[in-house]
Write a structure and sequence with these properties.
With 364 residues, the chain is α/β, with parallel strands linked by helices. It is built from 13 helices and 14 strands. It is elongated, with a radius of gyration of 21 Å.
């Protein structure tokens, strides 16, 4: 089987969908031939062959900042990625096109019109239901893969056919033999984009409701809300308790998680929540809000604690419960680790490959 992935961004660009695309491409390439067409990135070759995986980079500009992609870069690469993908489909007799997110799916739609090769869509974050163009593009896909039940429900509500629920994956080897670092403070951690939708303000406010004082809040991430969040912490008298660590490369996240005694994802909306799995894999008790994909990852009271979104009071109570009951916290960690194996990239890739077989045109 031959699979084409037109990707607006690909490794080493930093991001959840980029991590997904890379791991699916590399793992499925053990069974099929994979062609990734994407934009140019600094210090990366224009063409690369890794076993059955071929990566082709084409764009007017070269991306230099791996954590931020200007809009002009993304939009300008679309026609070049399209024409290179069109050429590969005809030359290699591609069986199926696998698109990641909306812009990639937009290309998949036009590739279908020009070649007749079906496209499959993957979406990993919640989409706005009123966007008629997205609805149109997703409805024409041979199958739609949602990273969570919440995204799968969105696909069904807008009339998509052949909806599959395949979660994000995690490289469990990265979390083996971690050296836990116990400090003199109870360390609460979150890893999130500093945007309103991530609910970090509610987490900061939750610190004022804790019944113990030997704590610190470690916030990893960057975004437009950073200044407002810093001002909030200062206003609440938490300037010395809240530390903003900035954006950390994904490969370093496991070592940072060893600093945490408790992990909180306070999102107001969440497509999946890969950081929940990462914290669980690192052996940290996890608290998450009752939204989107987090509901798929946490069984309340067994593998973590679920709280109402937008409730600082609930977050405070949950953190206090983790702090006060060591046996309970240990049980959350042990139960979560039992569930993690189903999120290994090998298992996830096998499910994606089965989707290719069901909905692709097999010519090889």
């Amino acid at each position: 089987m031959k699979v084409l992935m037109p990707a607006t961004h690909y490794y080493p660009v930093i991001g959840g969908i980029e991590t997904w695309t890379r791991n699916i491409a590399e793992n499925v390439a053990k069974t099929a031939e994979i062609f990734v067409v994407t934009g140019k990135v600094i210090n990366q070759p224009k063409k690369e062959q890794l076993g059955n995986l071929q990566i082709v980079r084409t764009s007017l500009f070269t991306l230099k900042n791996l954590s931020h992609s200007p809009l002009f870069y993304t939009l300008s690469l679309l026609p070049l990625v399209f024409f290179r993908s069109l050429s590969l489909i005809k030359k290699e007799k591609i069986d199926v096109v696998h698109c990641q997110g909306f812009l990639s799916s937009f290309l998949g739609f036009w590739l279908l019109k020009f070649t007749g090769v079906p496209y499959i869509v993957t979406v990993q974050r919640m989409e706005a239901k009123h966007n008629h163009l997205k609805k149109f593009i997703y409805r024409h896909a041979a199958a739609c893969i949602g990273a969570s039940r919440a995204i799968g429900k969105y696909f069904e509500e807008i009339g998509c056919k052949n909806v599959e629920i395949i979660p994000n994956g995690i490289d469990l080897k990265r979390f083996e033999n971690l050296d836990r670092k116990k400090g003199d403070k109870f360390s609460i951690m979150t890893v999130a984009r500093l945007e309103k939708v991530k609910g970090v303000a509610y987490l900061i406010r939750a610190m004022t409701g804790l019944q113990f004082s030997n704590f610190e809040l470690l916030i990893i991430g960057a975004g437009s809300e950073k200044r407002n969040l810093e001002e909030l912490a200062e206003k609440l008298g938490l300037k010395d308790k809240v530390r903003f660590l900035g954006e950390i490369p994904n490969e370093k996240i496991p070592s940072y998680l060893t600093l945490a005694d408790c992990f909180v994802l306070p999102s107001l909306r969440e497509g999946f929540g890969i950081v929940v799995l990462e914290a669980q894999a690192a052996g940290v008790p996890v608290i998450g809000t009752k939204v989107g994909g987090i509901l798929d990852l946490i069984e309340d009271g067994k593998t973590g604690i679920l709280v109402r979104s937008g409730s600082s009071e609930d977050i405070s109570q949950a953190i206090s419960r983790v702090y006060a009951n060591l046996d309970f916290s240990r049980s959350l960690v042990q139960n979560a680790k039992i569930e993690l194996e189903k999120y290994s990239w090998q298992n996830i890739a096998e499910k994606v490959y089965e989707t290719y077989l069901r909905y692709g045109h097999i010519s090889s």
